[in-house]
Write a structure and sequence with these properties.
With 281 residues, the chain is mostly helical. It contains ten helices and no strands.
């Protein structure tokens, strides 16, 4: 798997770097700006604790609103970059307008999915760390599933779990390599300050999103999971055609969400129970 993903990432970046790099740099700028904002806010908090004459309410509101806006922009740009990669691989053209159109067409499901992922991973990391790591790995291709298979947020998580669980160690190894590359790029560019942070974030986003696409394709082994008028061929309109998820009753969706959340929670807790005696020993 690692070899196939690496080859796919190299091909994607070689063929479509001109279209992808500007979006990646914009994404890197937003990510670095968010980090800088959080650093400044922590400094303001320290001044407040030291008794400085500052308006705490204004600082909190300003930091929260600015951070939320940047997070939303980063989320959208990340998805746009991913969908541009998908378009480049499937139609031969990594088009910004098409990537934005596809992204905004599922923005509600994307936001819901990211919120659910954040809660599951956050709770897992806070409880015993290992469940959080487990959740990060099994839900790694969830966003890819959402866009490539047209599923809803909960269904995307379930499908992601099914794809990864049988090849857990392979995906875990891929994520370790991506994290190592990100850390290396961060250290290498650290001497350049804010500019270096932007470049490192951009490189991480490019490699990460390309790896996500190719990992999903390797895991699913279903080239037609991205629905075209003619699978494998360029549609006449040049636009991606996604399968629209079937509608269902609200009560049915709520029940599905509860059942799936409980299943993954039980799985995470079981793994924690197995890991806890090992840590005490």
């Amino acid at each position: 798997m690692l070899g196939r993903v690496a080859t796919g990432v190299q091909r994607t970046l070689t063929e479509h770097w001109r279209a992808l790099v500007p979006v990646a740099l914009l994404l890197g700028f937003a990510s670095s700006l968010l980090g800088d904002l959080l650093d400044r806010s922590s400094g303001a908090v320290e001044e407040l604790e030291a008794g400085a004459n500052l308006d705490a309410g204004s600082i909190i509101v300003g930091v929260f609103s600015s951070s939320l806006l940047i997070i939303l922009v980063t989320l959208v740009l990340d998805a746009v970059l991913f969908n541009m990669i998908v378009g480049g691989e499937r139609t031969g053209t990594a088009d910004l307008g098409e990537g934005f159109r596809v992204t905004m067409g599922r923005i509600g499901s994307l936001v819901l999915l990211v919120l659910m992922l954040g809660v599951l991973v956050g709770v897992g990391l806070v409880l015993f760390i290992l469940p959080g790591v487990f959740a990060i790995v099994v839900l790694f291709p969830a966003v890819a599933v959402l866009y490539l298979e047209g599923k809803g947020a909960v269904a995307s998580m379930k499908r992601s779990y099914q794809l990864v669980i049988k090849r857990f160690l392979e995906v875990f190894g891929l994520l370790l390599i991506l994290v190592a590359l990100g850390i290396t790029a961060g250290f290498a560019m650290g001497a350049l300050g804010f500019v270096g942070s932007v470049v490192a974030s951009a490189l991480g986003s490019l490699v990460g999103q390309a790896a996500t696409y190719h990992a999903y394709m390797d895991l699913s082994a279903e080239p037609a999971s991205l629905w075209f008028a003619r699978p494998g061929a360029r549609p006449r309109s040049g636009r991606l055609v996604h399968l629209t998820p079937p509608t269902s009753r609200v009560s049915g969706r709520l029940l599905e969400s509860l059942v799936w959340s409980s299943q993954i929670a039980v799985d995470m807790c079981r793994r924690s129970a197995v890991a806890s005696p090992l840590r005490r020993g």
